[in-house]
Amino acid sequence: MYKIIKKEKLDDAIYSMWIEAPEVASSVQPGQFIILMIKEKGERIPLTVADFDREKGLIHIVFQIVGKTSEELFTLKEGDKLFSFIGPLGKKTEIENYGKVITVGGGTGIACIYPITRALKEAGNEVISIIGARNKELIIMEEEIRKASSELIVTTDDGSYGRKGFVTQVLKELLDKDKFIKKVWTIGPAIMMKVTCETTKPYQVETIVSLNSIMVDGTGMCGSCRVTIGGETKFVCTDGPEFNGQLVDWTEFMNRLSRYKDSEKKSWDLYHEHTHPCSCGRGTN
Amino acid sequence: MAEMIPPKERVKREQIPMPEQEPKERIYNFKEVPLGYTQEQAIYEAQRCLQCKNPKCVPGCPAEINIPKFIEKIVEEDFSSAYLEILKTDDLPAMTGRVCPQEEQCQQVCILEKQKKPIAIGRLERFVADWARENNIHGNLPKISKKEQKVAVVGSGPAGLTCAADLAKLGYEVTIFEALHQPGGVLVYGIPEFRLPKSIVEYEVKEIEKLGVKVITDFVVGTTKSVDELTQEFDAIFLANGAGAPRFMNIPGENLNDVYSANEFLTRANLMKAYLFPKYDTPIKIGKKAATIGAGNVAMDSARTALRLGAEKSYIVYRRSRKEVPARAEEVHHAEEEGIIFNFLTLPVKVLGDGKGNVRGMECLKMELGEPDDSGRRRPIPIPGSNFLIEVDMVIDAIGTSANPIVARSATGVEINQWGYFIIDDNTKTTTKEGIFAGGDIVRGSATVISAVGDGKVAARAIIEFLSSGKSLRKRF
Ligand SMILES: Cc1cc2nc3c(=O)[nH]c(=O)nc-3n(C[C@H](O)[C@H](O)[C@H](O)COP(=O)(O)OP(=O)(O)OC[C@H]3O[C@@H](n4cnc5c(N)ncnc54)[C@H](O)[C@@H]3O)c2cc1C
Ligand SMILES: Cc1cc2nc3c(=O)[nH]c(=O)nc-3n(C[C@H](O)[C@H](O)[C@H](O)COP(=O)(O)OP(=O)(O)OC[C@H]3O[C@@H](n4cnc5c(N)ncnc54)[C@H](O)[C@@H]3O)c2cc1C
Ligand code: FES
Fold first, then answer.
1. Count of CB atoms within 10 A of residue B58's CB?
2. What is the pLDDT of residue A268?
């Protein structure tokens, strides 16, 4: 169970894996996520389902090396098995034929927005995708996204590829130009999602974000993932992960993401005293 | 074999106190607090039992254990038979022996309770179960032929495990679906190691698996598969998914970084073993001064866990008075011994932050007791203008749990009441859909391990009746 069937490098710090999990693959929908544990002593980390193959019973995950667990995951090889793999969790994306929509992905969020983009297009929408990263090397899944959308615009902060600048600049231009944009989806770093929502707000275009709060069980049992949405407390794992981004209390959300900063650093440092397996350059002196 | 002593002698004897780890020592470790009777102590205590003709203790036990009989076996030094006697009706004796509120059940109705020295039934039960485990004594595996009917059990807490065990003993094919990566329910994720060592839970679950019960972990009924889908694969279903959703006070500041639900705090500490961080990867953040809101077993467990994890001060904040505290007397006693500070008649109204997301204090109101409320306890009433500040840097909400709707939402025709609990027929645990049964906390709201065990037994009997009459959830062609 939970065998790693295929592992790929997308860039220096982003990797993808296909995991054998037939029960999850049989019922998963775009927008949902899984929680995995590498080993019995490991922590439970949530990852979005970036793609799935129902027939073969496989789930595709894309992860960025940001700390100990994601780095340890990176050290696993094809054929290795995970200790635990739970899902699908969370609500699925509300896919309808809205007309003309935009999906915005940044960093690993590009992978997470892919199944949503594809499903929106399949439902008959005209989908404009904007994906962005710091530089050319960090742009992932470009071809898949291009195929899944009606139009794709790529941005890099340093201008090494596509348009120079942030995804939000392109988004603003599109909204200025086209009054018929019905809805926007955005997945990426918290700060990017926040700025995206600020960008769309004056245009009154509903903007859906997918929140990556810190979780434990992922089934509504602990409340670790709670956020304030329009003044009300919600659980990201069961009420989300997608929410109307204009209603999110971003300050609280970002504060809560830093709850375990000190422990995370300790974990990372200890891990690197023994080993420094990845080539991402972080923490390896 | 120890001798039977004359009844007069029995009545004269005092109850043997439980040997315990010293408070000074135990607040620095997660080892079990009560150490358990030695063989000599167990026999001495067992000899006190009057062996009543009409024992009151048996109906006092929701699992219907034949208490005088297993105690007699202890006196005979036949611990193995004592164990098999308990196993007839309780498959989780090492656990129930530890966490049952015996003082409100079997021991409360013990004839010797009148003299304030009831037989220490729980301690004897624990002794027997521990002895059997250490001496490799196991229950007899059923010798009956396998039946072809299949039963699904949702949730591996005490209700699910008991129901599964009872069905497996009669040859039914039982599969338990568990959302977490480890079976046991609250016994693994909620109750701390220092009260219920996880190796014991693991052991008793393994014993049940030996009966032929299949446990599938990492399976969230409602999302991995719906109850509706399970009805196509199984002949009957028992829903025992517990009342797992945490409740919050809904006061300002409750989403600050250092505010935990007891569920999150205890799950990190117990299930994920954050107390062993960084050997285990899951972190937990402990303040210098921790306030736990509530005064049930869950609150005691949280406050005591915070202390062990390094909090310098650990407070219990409770809106009623000492008299109304719902936790077991033993837990309150242990907490006090360990230096937990109790703030009674205190109602938190606001958690205060430092502007960066961290907790710096809690604003509270003083309360007074008014007329009795629906629960029969005197209603706490806030004293206007009595606001005051408790300086704390972490808060744990332990004010109860409610129903998690995931399972119910996926079960067509299975009705819930206004609180989200399944509506059942009390005698058979049948829900509003024939063939689907429910029990434990998801029916009663947060209750006790033994009442969950009791529900599991009643449901098992009803399921057997349902299946024996040729009925099934599945459409057979
Ligand atoms: C619904 C959801 C979907 C996600 N999808 C993806 C994805 O597709 N790809 C991806 O790379 N990342 C995704 N994440 C984030 C991912 O879970 C974290 O990056 C991962 O847990 C980091 O673990 P670590 O030990 O490597 O890093 P740590 O050193 O533990 O932490 C690094 C960062 O990760 C965050 N984090 C730590 N623990 C958790 C946790 N248990 N849950 C959530 N965040 C945590 C912290 O806030 C911190 O900023 C998702 C998160 C959620 C909630
Ligand atoms: C901290 C704490 C201390 C306690 N102390 C005591 C005590 O000292 N004495 C006492 O008698 N009682 C105590 N209790 C109460 C007691 O533990 C519960 O009443 C009892 O465990 C209820 O049993 P249950 O089988 O109904 O549910 P649970 O034990 O809650 O088990 C339910 C199981 O179902 C699983 N589940 C939930 N949803 C799904 C799903 N969708 N799919 C699959 N599986 C699912 C859960 O993960 C869980 O494993 C305590 C409770 C807590 C939280
Ligand atoms: S992760 Fe525990 S409730 Fe959401």
1. 17
2. 87
